[in-house]
Specification:
Blueprint: H1 3-8, E1 15-19, E2 22-26, H2 30-38, E3 50-54, H3 63-79, E4 82-85, H4 90-96, E5 105-108, E6 122-125, H5 128-137, E7 139-143, E8 146-153, H6 162-172, E9 181-186, H7 193-202, E10 210-213, E11 226-231, E12 238-240, E13 248-250, E14 260-264, H8 265-268, H9 271-281, E15 289-293, H10 297-306, H11 308-314, E16 318-319, E17 340-343, E18 359-363, H12 365-374, H13 380-383
Parallel strand pairs: 2-3, 2-5, 3-4, 5-6, 8-9, 8-11, 9-10, 14-15, 14-17, 15-16, 17-18
Antiparallel strand pairs: 1-7, 12-13, 12-18
Helix pairs in contact: 2-5, 6-7, 9-11, 9-12
Family: Belongs to the aconitase/IPM isomerase family. LeuC type 2 subfamily.
EC number: 4.2.1.33
Function: Catalyzes the isomerization between 2-isopropylmalate and 3-isopropylmalate, via the formation of 2-isopropylmaleate.
Length: 384
């Protein structure tokens, strides 16, 4: 069986109903979930397995959002659901706070819920109506997805990160229909959990339904739609050009002046990634406005303990509170008309970070840090 088939205990293509071990949502999706929930249900079936995170637009930047967040708090109190405010991004906080313990099947009201596949679980994002039904019933239905197997061999180079690997993979799969398919990763997984979460997170941008990384307990001997083998040592620093993550090019071939750098998000806001950024920026000074957004307050506190915060601030970086920050273009670094943004996030669609007339390039934290110094997209292989 494939990993997904093992986790759901069913063959690809089958429609199954399964109990859900964990349901979570965030401040951006809960209002619609509440509206849908109240049409059919009065009580959440398993409130101890449901969690709400304030991470997308927090603290509230407008009266409208403040009022919506008040409604969320009222719903949570009514239903006995725990809210995490100021903890950081949901996908990061769920494992940090031990909420994954004993969980195998997880749904989240956010498209990047498959980030948790780094821990060997079946995690999928769902819309407001489906999430509301799961809250009311404690279970949901799935069509078991077919899987694509990705074999990783060797090791990444010193200036190459998991983000580069995933930009490479999305380029390989750009002409392959990944709709409602799963990505399963094997071999070459002696990476940190921080980098593994980047792999699972960015898998969504191939249009995959979910992603799972082998943790050594799965057979992985099922029937796969396709098998891809990647030699990690051959991957170079890459960048996604506007306006899609699959529009990939080698960094050395892209020379573009930039106005802003953002390093963070649920893709690349974890401790190992921010350590690398601090190493590069130590003793240097950024030449464009540069924002760093830790994925959680635990990471934020560790940055202080390790001196990462001091090095970033000394280099001229603005460190944001834990959360999604400017990734979705709502606050804390919105892109203006005609601006060129280099970001370590997962999406660079028109208008994603603010103005539809801005251009967003995606790259690894290493490439982003080097580029922040030089004020243009720069190949780290040339300067590190």
């Amino acid at each position: 069986m494939t990993i997904v088939e093992e986790l759901l205990n069913a063959k690809a293509g089958e429609a199954v109903i399964r109990e859900v071990d964990l349901i979570y949502a965030h401040d951006g999706t809960v209002p619609l979930i509440i509206e849908s929930f109240r049409k059919t249900f009065t009580r959440v079936r398993k409130p101890d397995k449901a969690f709400i995170f304030f991470d997308h637009v927090y603290p509230a930047p407008t009266v409208k959002i403040a009022n919506l967040q008040r409604e969320i708090r009222e719903f949570a109190r009514e239903q006995g659901i725990r809210i995490f405010e100021g903890y950081g991004i949901s996908h990061q906080v769920v494992p940090e706070e031990g909420l994954l313990e004993g969980a195998k099947i997880i749904i989240g009201a956010d498209s990047h819920t498959p980030t948790l596949g780094a821990f060997g679980v079946f995690a999928v994002g769902m819309g407001a109506t489906d999430t509301a039904i799961a809250l009311g019933l404690g279970k949901t239905w799935f069509k078991v997805p077919e899987s694509v197997r990705v074999n990783l061999e060797g090791r990444l180079g010193k200036n190459v990160m998991a983000m580069d690997l995933m930009l490479h993979l999305i380029g390989l799969l750009k002409d392959f229909d990944m709709n409602y398919k799963a990505l399963e990763f094997f071999g070459g997984l002696d990476l940190s959990i921080d980098e593994k979460m980047t792999i699972a997170n960015f898998s969504v941008e191939t249009n995959a339904k979910t992603a799972v990384l082998d943790n050594g307990t799965f057979s992985g001997d099922g029937d796969y739609l396709r098998e891809v083998t990647i030699e990690l040592g051959q991957i170079e620093p890459l960048v996604a050009l506007p306006h899609h993550p699959s529009n990939v090019e080698r960094v050395e071939k892209v020379k573009r002046k930039i106005d802003q750098v953002f390093i963070g998000s649920c893709t690349n806001g974890r401790l190992e990634q921010l350590r690398r950024v601090a190493e590069i920026l130590e003793g240097e000074e950024v030449s464009v406005r540069t924002f760093v957004g830790p994925a959680s307050r635990r990471i934020y506190l560790q940055m202080i303990k390790e001196g990462i915060m001091q090095r970033l601030i000394d280099a001229g970086v603005t460190v944001l509170p834990p959360g999604c920050g400017p990734c979705l273009g709502r606050h804390m670094g919105v892109a203006g008309d005609g601006e060129i943004i280099l970001s370590t996030t997962n999406r660079n669609f028109k208008g994603r970070m603010g103005s539809p007339n801005a251009e967003i390039y995606l790259a690894s934290p290493v490439t982003a840090a080097v580029s922040a110094i030089y004020g243009e997209i720069t190949n780290p292989e040339d300067v590190l």
